[in-house]
Amino acid sequence: MDTDLVLLSRLQFAFTVTFHIIFPSLTIGLAAWLATLEGLHLFTGNPHYRRVFNFWIKLFAVSFGMGVVFGIVMAFQFGTNWSVLSGRTGGIQGPLLAYEVVTAFLLEATFLGVVLFGRDRLPPVAYFLCCCMVAIGTTLSAFWIMVNNTWMQTPVGFAMSPEGNFLPTSWYDIIFSYAVWIRFPHMLLGAYLTTCFVAAATGAWFLLQNRSPRQARIMVTMGLGLAAILVPAQMVFGHLNGTEINKTQPAKLAAIEARWETQQPASLTLIGIPLPSQERNILAIDIPVLGSCIDAGDCSAEEPGLKSFAPEDRPPVIIPFFTFRIMVGMGVIMLALAWFGMVLQARGRLYTTRWFLWLCVVSFPVGWIAVIAGWYTAEIGRQPWVVYNHLRTADAHSPLTLFDLIISLAGFAILYLSIVSAGAWYMFRMVRNGPQPDEDPVDEPSQIGSSKRPLAVPRESMIGLAE
Amino acid sequence: MTVDPTLAVIWACILAGGLLIYVVLDGFDLGIGMLFGVAESEHDRRVMMNSVAPIWDGNETWLILGGVVLFAAFPLVYASLLPALYLPIIVMLMALIMRGVAFEFRYKASGIYQTIWDLGFVLGSGVATFCQGAALGTLMQGLPIQDGQYAGPPFIWFNAFSIFCGFGLMAGYMLLGSTWLVLKTEGSLQEWAYARIRPLLVTMALFLAAGVVWMLIDYQHLGQRWWNHIEFLLLVIAGAAAAFVLWRSVAKRQELVPFWSAAALFGIAFAALGLSFWPYIIPPAITVFDAASVSASQTFMLHGMAILLPIVLIYTCFVYWIFRGKATAEVEYD
User: Taking the complete model, does pTM exceed 0.90, yes or no?
Assistant: First the structure.
């Protein structure tokens, strides 16, 4: 029965956190982009930046709202479902999350209201600063979450009390560990890339339909242009994460590579099908020596295989093996799209090459897929530990009943799926309705937030009724 | 690596202060969520929603602050209280999700779908409030804890006193909501809100009085201090005074006094509850000092909070100031 409790608790955490991460992945980048657009409009006076802002702020509001409400669940789930973990690590994880709330969550939630509703009530510079507050809040939020997760992955700066509690000995080590400063940029870049490709896809779609082309070009160029720089940077950080895992979590790396035997030098399995029950791979394409070169930066290094770890200390193999390859594959697609887009841009054909614009449209979820696949690799690959090498996931759960968990998991499943479907539909409809035409006046101080709009039926529902 | 009793007291005060801010702020917007269900027209519903739309998100974040302060400063409580109250807390979170998305979704939907989101808004607000009250009622009755983990039966929260507290808090939040409406609206809706204040005040006062009597009789671990501490008598008098000011403000058609006197009533009830608990944080077994995390954790947070919490309070006030004045029915953004 305990096994079922652990399994259901893990499923519930995985389910709720997967749905949560969809929204921050988009809004972290979107908040920074919106602040940039607002700043660009402020300094250049180009009205198209404002129109692009006005279009995206609506999508931002919906996705931010869903991110917030799903995030509240996460703040309580440590205690409701993982009480042994939270009781024993509260002295470390608690302060990190408390800092997240006071530096980030309160900041972004409070200023979001101003950004959505306050344009008419503030001078333009003050409004721009409020946009920056939201962007800073979302970034800091990601930072503290990554500090906390990194501590669970590579625990440092603590001592064990006789009762088995984790007590902090060095906050400096916890916050400024090398792992934090390669994992946080990796997540932040992942979020920015998600936004880049959503923005580029949306702009490409408008270009294909020849709607508001001036704004569409801003979306495509800014999205792909930023991605052209960020994807290589992301690959560097990804590689640094790999070599760090090689040192701190060798079992995870062995699972990612589906390497069963210890090898020196180790080969790299490009693709294949791991068979955990037989402890071998089939249909594998191996490249000799390359594994040691990439994982350790030393082509003669010995790399441990899964068989060198006791069976109870091994992570699952199949999911990390494939999710890692999905993540890397998405990275390659992103790089190809962004760089090819820049080549077209340089030749002046980016906005007219229809097949490429279609490719951009269908590539809108590449960032999300990469982020989620990457998280699955990191979190499943660290099993069976919740605090790496110190506390097993199986020992960390709350004294609940199966009834509790079945009710909560079923409830979350129904609620999240219906809300995300509705949210996705409303967001799709906002995209389909498109931005305001390029020729529309953008009156200072604002188009949205205007008190001039007649009170009657809001625009969206008029469109809804007209259908 | 020890617990510092002074720090433990400071953190207990920060926790209590944060929770009180949450109760008053989210209290009025949850209350408006419930009153939304009996509003008389679409116009009124829009004004009600607009009166809280820019600020509800920030209000609700204080709940998360309470949760993480508990996690950080009193991990033992976080780790035992939350599993003990598992279903009420999970249901509360689901209810908060329902009402949270309704702010965004109702204006994007039409016809039957708008009705569904409106229903979600009302039910979400009511259920979340009820669960908070029931959780408080359960905590008041005491929880069995062993080795830092909850060791009681699964449905400990399902009993008459908890349900009583759930309904009591619904009345209280609706009272706060109606006073906020008085402040933020005008005309017929404001009159409608004025008309709700006195019945809700009487209801809440009856719940409070009955709750105190019930506690004195059945829950000695909380009630015993009432007999030999003069503070409680003073708090009861102060509570009666706040109720009187609130009652009179309706006749005088004052706009700001109702909200502040209702908030004061909440503050007084909250203080009485805190003093009854003291020094226990989970009666009848775990004190603030038992539950405190080590001073290395509490000091680290205190340094940050000493600077950050005042900043948070300043910008929260700033945002309320930006949105001062009456709410309208205009959909300011969609």
Answer: no
Q: The tokens of B240 are what?
A: 């009666």
For an interface test with B, which of A70, A96, A110 has the most B Cβ atoms less than 10 Å from its Cβ? A110
Under DSSP, the state recorded for A157 is S
Of A69, A159, A408, the CB nearest to B96: A69
The answer to whether B175 touches B318, Cβ cutoff 8 Å, is no
3-class DSSP state of A168: strand
Contacts (Cβ under 8 Å, ≥6 apart) of A61: A112, A116, B104, B333
Tell me the per-residue pLDDT of A209-260, one tens digit each, with 9 for 90 and over. 988 888 899 999 999 999 999 999 999 999 999 888 888 998 998 898 888 8
Q: Are A71 and A108 in contact (CB under 8 A)?
A: no
Spatial separation of the C-alpha atoms in residues A437 and B316, rounded to whole Å: 36
Residue A155 has pLDDT above 60, yes or no: yes
Q: What dihedral angle (degrees, nearest 10) is formed by the CA atoms of A119, A123, A124, A128?
A: -80
The tens digit of pLDDT for each residue in B213-224 reads 999 888 888 888
Q: How many CB atoms lie within 10 A of CB A246?
A: 22
Q: How far is CA B152 from CA A273, A399, A401, B59, B143, in A?
A: 47, 10, 12, 33, 7
CB contact under 8 A, A91 and B64: no
What is the full DSSP assignment across B102-155? HHHHTTT--THHHHHHHHHHHHHHHHHHHHHHHHHHHHHH---EETTEE-S-TT
Q: Read off the DSSP letter of residue A393.
A: G
